[in-house]
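Throughout our pipeline, every protein is held as a single compact record rather than as scattered files. The remainder of this section carries one protein's record, kept here as part of the documentation.

===
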Amino acid sequence: MTTWSLFPENTNYFGPGNEKGPQQAMVNYRVDDLDGLLTQLSAAGVSIDPKREDYDYGRFAWITDPEGNRIELWQPLVESDKSE
């Protein structure tokens, strides 16, 4: 399922404004290994926000693409086997 949610033009959810103006939408990628991916992206010189958020439904981190767009990375929590 794909969901699109636009934010108000003056939102600060995406972090500091970039040179091209306010960002009203953000791509969110679901990833399997957030820490491993961030290590690879850092080695490639990608701008990584040091902020992390952990919730009962997953972990989040943010990067910035070369054009200044903020991108969200989400690693869902692995549910343990409930039959044990």
